[in-house]
Recover the amino acids of this structure.
């Protein structure tokens, strides 16, 4: 017996055969709607049962199930804890463990350029124990430096695996540490958690030599920076050379010796915006000419889908935020006035699924309350009979398909488990005719008599 709860797509309409009590489905479109049933989360211990990979390496031991790590996992920026994108969660907890300070780290790039100073830390280009190694799309913790051998700890490290919560303690050379280690993005520099003054602070790397990603989930994803092509050297005669420069606060773009303000800058196929204060904007919405734009971690203008927190937004090819109905390939989506994608809701008589797609019209859907039907032109039947395919179905006031015996105000009808109305047959000791209504006080076509309540009377 094929059961409804198997959620199989098997055609266009429903026909149910009641022979010998067996139900089979054929020719039916079935699409599973969002299941709102909550799923219990695993505890932190269950998420990383083997602890950090490489624990004890060079005498460095870390308990990732300790209080500080669990505490940071509960914070808003700890949503990726013990996961493949948990580098910022781990660095925040480890930095707090090493310094005793609450140190919420969202990404290495902004920490190196701006936030380090808010906590009294320093920065530079030389490796040092008790420091953050900052990349355009990653952050790690330098635990120990022994000549050219550097021991680090980090989260969000894919090869460490799920059983270790994607966390690891490992050693490498300075050259290896300061390279793109497969998704870390370009190396920027070090933030010294003990306030060390090691020099090289004014020589940060350009903000990236990788490919930019548009999705900034809680500012904690692998977002590789664009290719800022300016150099750090002054031009002839002491003038600042054209291009990108970092003054220790953030990035500026110079042209003819002056920092540009309040305008777009095109560089290496990407667009950036420098504000009235001359600094490049990043991780923010920007409203210009009645349109909204989003600037990612590396400052580049986003296009396509962008997830911010729990909401999805779509940025057109020109970077402007989309609103209203949009078609992407064969799929339709609706973006609210604030740009957030609508999901699990009705818009203009059409239902949008959990992934935001307008559901295929003329299709059956199942949710936690039961089966319902979407009209080809939008909307759904409620408190009425509806012929779908070659069968009649009855829907309650909320629009859900009914089954079993129902009274429609005029007669009794029997609806099978798949909702299709039965006709011209016996149902136990009751008979339904060619219009599906139960016989009362009359002879059946096969010569039996049923009483006023529809029950067969054997004596007649």
């Amino acid at each position: 017996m094929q059961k409804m709860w198997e959620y199989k797509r098997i055609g266009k309409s429903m026909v149910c055969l009641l022979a010998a009590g067996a139900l089979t489905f054929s020719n039916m479109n079935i699409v599973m709607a969002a299941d709102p049933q909550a799923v219990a989360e695993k505890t932190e211990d269950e998420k990383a049962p083997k602890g950090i990979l490489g624990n004890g390496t060079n005498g460095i031991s870390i308990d990732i199930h300790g209080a500080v790590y669990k505490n940071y996992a509960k914070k808003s920026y700890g949503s990726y804890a013990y996961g493949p994108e948990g580098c910022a969660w781990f660095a925040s907890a480890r930095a707090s463990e090493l310094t005793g300070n609450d140190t919420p780290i969202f990404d290495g790039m902004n920490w190196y350029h701006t936030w380090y100073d808010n906590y009294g830390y320093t920065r530079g280009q030389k490796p040092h124990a008790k420091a953050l190694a900052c990349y355009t799309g990653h952050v790690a913790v330098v635990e120990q430096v022994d000549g050219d051998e550097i021991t680090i700890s980090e989260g969000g490290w894919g090869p460490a695996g799920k059983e270790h919560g994607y966390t690891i303690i490992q050693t490498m050379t300075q050259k290896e540490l300061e390279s793109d280690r497969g998704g870390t993005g370009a190396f920027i520099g070090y933030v010294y958690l003990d306030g060390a003054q090691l020099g090289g602070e004014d020589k940060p790397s350009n903000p990236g030599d990788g490919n930019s990603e548009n999705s900034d989930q809680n500012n904690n994803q692998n977002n590789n920076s664009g290719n800022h092509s300016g150099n750090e050297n002054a031009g002839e005669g002491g003038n600042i050379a054209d291009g990108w420069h970092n003054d220790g606060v953030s990035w500026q773009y110079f042209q003819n010796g002056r920092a540009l303000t309040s305008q777009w800058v095109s560089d290496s196929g990407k667009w950036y915006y420098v504000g009235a204060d001359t600094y490049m904007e990043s991780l923010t919405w920007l409203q210009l000419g009645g349109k909204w734009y989003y600037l990612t971690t590396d400052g580049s203008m986003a296009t396509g889908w962008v997830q911010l927190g729990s909401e999805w937004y779509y940025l057109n090819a020109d970077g402007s935020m989309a609103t209203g109905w949009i078609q992407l390939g064969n799929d339709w989506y609706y973006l609210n006035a604030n740009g957030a994608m609508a999901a699990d809701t009705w818009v203009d008589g059409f239902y949008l699924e959990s992934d935001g797609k307008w559901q295929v019209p003329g299709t059956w859907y199942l949710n936690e309350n039961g089966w319902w039907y979407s009209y080809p032109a939008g909307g759904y039947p409620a408190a009425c009979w509806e012929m779908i395919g070659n069968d009649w179905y009855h829907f309650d006031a909320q629009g859900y398909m009914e089954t079993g015996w129902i009274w429609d105000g005029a007669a009794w009808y029997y609806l099978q488990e798949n909702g299709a109305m039965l006709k011209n047959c016996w149902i136990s000791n009751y008979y339904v005719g060619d219009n599906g209504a139960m016989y009362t006080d009359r002879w059946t076509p096969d010569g039996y008599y049923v009483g006023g309540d529809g029950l067969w009377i054997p004596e007649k």
Summary: The longest strand covers residues 139-146.
